[in-house]
Amino acid sequence: MAQKMSDYYKANPDLRIAVFAGKGGLGKTTCSAALSDWLAREGRRALCFSTDPQASLSDIFEKDIFGKGRQELVDQLYVMEIDADKRIAAFQQEVRQKILDMYGIKEIPKEIDEYITAAAAEPAMHESATYDAMAGLLASQEYDFYVFDMPPFGHGIRMVSMARILDMWIDKMEETRLKAQEYGDTAYQLQQKGAGAGQDEMLRELQEIREKLGFFQDILTDSKRTAFYMVVAPEKMAILDTERALDMFRRMDITLTGVIVNQVYPRELLKRKDLSQFMRDRIEMQQKYMIEIEKKLGDYVCAVIPMFDREPKGLKMITKVADIMMNWSGKIVED
Ligand SMILES: Nc1ncnc2c1ncn2[C@@H]1O[C@H](COP(=O)(O)OP(=O)(O)O)[C@@H](O)[C@H]1O
Ligand SMILES: [Mg+2]
Q: Are 173 and 187 in contact (CB under 8 A)?
């Protein structure tokens, strides 16, 4: 079993980042909000960052945050929810404008425009925009602590391979340029006009992103600075997903700091005479999975959070979740 979370933070003062990854719907955003709230109460300027427009920080803190930049909730507690689609659209526009300026033309050739559009539709582009925003925030060093609530795709760590995807993209672009030269088409003439401008502006742009991703990758694999969490629930699919992610992390040199088990029905409920058979069955089923969690993930479990009778919303409820999460030190499977 992992150390109590509050003790872990006290014992590791160099920690500056926490990442929450894993399947959606289990409590990533809730736990991210709770950790941020606790850090802020400990006197650290904390930023909670999310990109997921659904079941979001806006809901949890009951405030419209999405796409609105950074917002201060209470003293030392900041939240931010970026609109990745808007960022991609802006990036596309920027690339188009740069091409127009560089070649002194009025319209982007169809072939190139199609290429830009296709590239923007890639899920990798969405991730890239997210990581780009994260890297920018980290570089700003404006906060004492960054809590990143990752979207469910690819366990939120695909950026480790993103640098490679961008390499391929850059190669592809260079190849396209060469082909254009061979065939002497419009693109080739454009290249000729722009040849004096030196290195292709768009390539440089991509190389810059790749650098930022490399920087991000370094941070993620540095367990002195970064805590990496997964949230699981006593359910078959959630456990499977976490096991798979653990395998992937090992291959990528990412150390998992802890697993938080969320939405666990308290076992004391079984003592209640008025408990329905339905609830009894559900609790028994969860206990079966808790045994499995202890066996498979026990070394990582750093908190168990009960299922509440309502969704934890609002600062007061989040503080309650935080105090349970940060101070848990019980048994995974109760006697
Ligand atoms: N311990 C809990 N008890 C009751 N409801 C919870 C608990 N944890 C999370 N929830 C609710 O479950 C839903 C999913 O949680 P959320 O934090 O948004 O998950 P994720 O970010 O992983 O998708 C939300 O409606 C949230 O309020
Ligand atoms: Mg979420």
A: no
pLDDT given at position 183: 61
| Å from CA of 312 to ligand 1 middle | 7
Give the contacts of 226 (CB within 8 A, at least 6 positions apart).
15, 16, 17, 18, 19, 219, 220
Rounded Cα gap, residues 123 and 105, in angstroms: 30
| Residue 325 to residue 319: CA distance in whole angstroms | 10
The protein residue with its alpha carbon nearest to ligand 1, atom 17, reads 27
Please state the rounded mean pLDDT for residues 213-230: 84
Name every protein residue with a CB atom under 6 angstroms from any ligand 1 atom.
Answer: 24-30, 55, 262-263, 305, 307-308, 311-312
Residue with tokens 């292709």: 200
| Distance from the alpha carbon of residue 48 to the mean position of ligand 2, in angstroms | 12
Task: Compute the half-sphere exposure of residue 225: CA atoms within 13 Å on the CB side of its CA.
Answer: 10
User: How far away, in angstroms, is 28 Cα from ligand 2 center?
Assistant: 5
Distance in angstroms (rounded) separating the CA atoms of residues 278 and 208? 56
Distance, in Å, from the CA atom of 83 to the CA atom of 247, rounded to the nearest integer, reads 31
> Domain coordinates of the chain in residue numbers?
86-127+156-215
pLDDT digits (tens, 9 = 90+) for 120-169: 777 767 777 777 788 888 888 899 999 999 877 655 555 555 555 666 66
